[in-house]
Predict the structure.
Amino acid sequence: MKNGVLGFLGVIIALALTVLYLSIYIVNPAQQALVLQFGKVVSATQQPGLHFKIPLVQNVVYIDRRILDFNMPPLEAIASDKKRLVVDAFARYRISDPVRFYQRVNNINAANQRLSTLLQGALRDELGRSTFTAVVRDNRSQIMTRIRTLVSAATADLGLEVVDVKIRRADLPEANSQAVFSRMQTEREREATEIRAQGEEQGRRIRSRADRDATVLIAEARRDAEILRGDGDAERGRIFAEAFSEDPSFFTFYRSMQAYEAGLKTGQTSFVLSPDSSFFRYFNDPAGAAAAAAAPVQMPLQAPAAGAAPAGQ
């Protein structure tokens, strides 16, 4: 009898624990829960913690409450300036109304499909009103804001809140990019050729100006040199004249010695002179007196050239 009572109590306790276990559900901070009764939403729980439901009659569906990422496949669109664009975009969203989300799309995969359709339509619509330059450089942030506004309005009925929409890449198609690159390369080569031609022209102009300046400088230097050389020769003649006037006999002797040195070199042209010639007066008389008396020496007005015979010879 006693064992039968204990077994019955054990069964009661086991049933109570089972019912209690089936009545409890836990919601963690990254989730939100929907309590369903025969497939109909009874309540929505967004607070994390321990919650209760009617066992066997109600069941719980968990829905992610974190911010979710959606990467849209590359989209080809046409800008307002008729340029084709390949756009790679992504969106970030959260499930703001779990009841409506469950009733309209039911799961994340279906939500991503609906979001892809809405995002593609908003991108095509907005890019069709914008130029290529505006999308790529000038007004990209404003375009993203308008696209996010359009998508948010369309997804509100699905229980979704779009947090952000970004264009990761917006570029021309590969064939167009190659054509643009080739055109840019040709244009840069043309500019480089033009710049080189201008540089060559300027170089020739500079070299011509430098050659002209060098010719002028050399001519002026030669002119100044001739002037200085003439002044030097005049000064030299004056000094010779003063020296001759100081001692005419020594000057005559000195010039005769120079004439002997220049005129009696070996290997030169032969010439015949009489031994009584005044040219040899210093050979006959070291003082050269007889010859000097026969042919008096004139005072030169300028210096004679080197190797020339003395005056009066």
Observations:
- The two ends are 180 Å apart (CA to CA).
- Residues 167 and 193 are 39 Å apart (CA to CA).
